[in-house]
Each structure stands twice: as C-alpha cells, then as structure tokens.
Amino acid sequence: MAPRTQKIVRKIRRNDTEISRCIKYLMFGFNILFWILGFMIAAIGIYAWIEKDTFDNFGRLTMGGTLFFDPALLFVLVGIFMFCIGFAGCVGSLRENTCLLLFFSFALAVIFFIQLAFGTLVFIYREKVKNESEKQLMIMVQSYRDDPDLQNMIDWIQRQWLHCCGVNNYRNWESNVYFNCSSKIVGSVEACGVPASCCRLEYFHNNKQCGYGTLEPSAVTHAIYTEGCLPKASQWFERHILSVAIVGCIFAVLQILGICFAQNLRNDILAQKAKWTWHTHPMMSAYRYQ
C-alpha cells in the first residue's frame, strides 16, 4: 500500500494592525504642505525685517509702538504658529507619536474656538469693534512713513482694493505730520496733501503728484478718492458676505476634519499599543504555554 501523502498548508499571518494607513498618510501629506507653507511665511517676514534693519532698531520700534502695526510681524507670528502645528501633525502621523497628535488636535481645537468666540463677540459688539478699529487705523495712518511695509499695505488698500482715502474720509491724513499743512514751515512738498495711492487711477497714471495740495480749504478733490476706507470696507463685506461665509465654513470644516482625523489616528495607535501589551504580558506568556 502506497504511503499517503499529507498536504501541507501554510498559514499566512495577516496584518491585523489597528492603524488606518489612509488616515495616516493623508494626515502626513496635508501637514507637510502646511509645514512648508508656515516656514515660507515666517521666512518672508524675517527677510522683510532684515531688509529694513528691524533687528538693529528693535528698541526704537518697541518704544514707539509701531512694531505692533508691522505687517512683517504678522507674517512671522503666523508662520511660526503654522510651522509648529504642521510639524506636530506631520511627524506625529508619520512616527505614530500620540503626544504630537494630541498637541496637533488640541491646537486646532483652540484655534477653532478662538475663531468662533471672536466672530460671536464681533457680531455682538459691532459698534465697539468699529470704534476700536477706527482708533487702530488712525494710528496706522499716523505711522504711514515710519514703516515701508505698513506704507505698502495702506497704499494697496487705498489704490487697489477699496479705492478709498483715509479712515473716515481723506482729511484724516491731516493727522500725519508729513501731510499736515503745518509741515510747510519745514519745506515739506507733501504738506496739505495726501499719498499718491489716494489718487484715482486715471489721474495717477498721468500725474504721480495729483494728491499734493488737496487738503487746502479751496482745493479741488476730483482727482482723489474722498471716501474713507472704513465705510468702504463695511460696504465691501456687505456685498461679499456670502463669499466670506463660505470661506469661513470651509476653514471650519477643514479644522474639524483635522481634529477628527488626528484623534482617530491617535485612538488607533493606542489600541495597537494595548494589543502589543496584551501579547507581551508575562501572565499571557505563561497561559499560552500551558
């Protein structure tokens, strides 16, 4: 009788990991872009500071109060914050670090609730916010010549975006020492005038000095914008309220998804670690060999 042959079946061990690869690499890819973007924004702000010797004049800017209205400072702070959050999300998801993922989700939650609280307070205290914004904008007008970045930002708002001049009207530029009529004593050519960014486009292309002398009592103002930027900004938001709301909702949804993905990945990692602990426990080893 021929010997019976026994069929050998090899059992292949399946990978029963709790960690979702889709969420892991989706978190990694999104946050590495966020990380690089934060680094670039911070680098732009630091480069702007180096170009205008902010580090050498840091004490003077701090005492004068103009540092807080420096657009480069906003770039640096936002860039560093984005860099830290992107680093935590990128490395936390790739290395499966629960501490970094917890920091990432906590930071996003804090940002979300700050935005929600800020929007609610702005809606409730509209008049107070408007008055405070007017004060801060007047300080920016007074510091127009003190910071090149601030000057470029105001010029862009007046000429390109809102087509306005001053805060409430063009006569707000009298509060700036360079454009005040009293500067005639020192021979300032800009005295009793407004910046060139207040000029209407059709006049600005032909005459870069079309804003000179427009603060004179008898001056003709048809060549400049006379309406202030604050009322023009209110009108712009009223016209684009739907677009602003859609963009805000998109950002909110992305933040909520980021929090959910980070917490889901963190829970999967903790579940996988608990499984490793269960298999390597001494009592379980003794139980398996009985």
UniProtKB/TrEMBL annotation:
SUPFAM superfamilies: Tetraspanin. Disulfide bonds join C165-C181. It comes from the Eukaryota. The chain crosses the membrane at residues 21-50, 72-94, 101-125, 241-262. InterPro entries: Tetraspanin/Peripherin (IPR018499), Tetraspanin_animals (IPR000301), Tetraspanin_CS (IPR018503), Tetraspanin_EC2_sf (IPR008952). The keyword Oxidoreductase does not apply. It is a multi-pass membrane protein. It is found in: Membrane. One of its GO terms (cellular component) is plasma membrane. Keywords: Disulfide bond, Membrane, Transmembrane, Transmembrane helix. Gene3D superfamilies: Tetraspanin (1.10.1450.10). PROSITE patterns: TM4_1. PANTHER family: TETRASPANIN, TETRASPANIN 26A, ISOFORM B-RELATED. Belongs to the tetraspanin (TM4SF) family. This is Tetraspanin. It comes from Adineta steineri.
